[in-house]
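Methods — Computational structure assignment.
A single polypeptide chain was analysed. Its primary sequence is given first, followed by the predicted tertiary structure written as structure tokens.
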Amino acid sequence: MDTSGYRSKADRKDTLNTLSYITPHLRPGDTVLDVGCGPGNVAWEIMQSHDGHVLAVDVVDYRRRELPHFALYDGVSLPFADASCDVVVVGFMLHHVPNEMKPAVLAELRRVTRRRLIVLEDTPRNALDRYFNRRHGEAFRKKIGSSAGYGFFALEEWKQVFEVNSLSVVDALPIGRFSRDWQQPFARSCFVLEPAR
């Protein structure tokens, strides 16, 4: 495992920007779960400043960080008890889930979330956004050797998906197009959700 950290300055910038949407929701001692942790940068950064447990899962292991509480999972069933995670973070992962599987994935996220579910997602606003989202979806499928579908939604569509799946939208915040890199000016949003019980 390459544990040197970030691949680029843009990667670090994107991680720190992502953290700016998460950290206001953390309380001392919270258990935080990063679902679809990818290289592990977000979970690793949370571990550096947070005194609670930080857990991470993904369907493939391509971490660049050593995460003591990492597990592989099947993409649906999370290996945690009901309401066992105070804050669950899903960073730019749900669009990789085939649309027909999104309800099961969201039900599982709702099940393990005690207080807050923070979802960061690409939210295309025009044809160019949709083109780049499609290219990203195709490239990621190739990277992980999968032929499964994927699905990107606009901001209002995501809100409807969350509400239908018993997740209350507390807030929906736009993420600046250039918060990642000037070469990737994608429309993205942060959704702060609470499980309806």
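Note: The mean pLDDT is 92.
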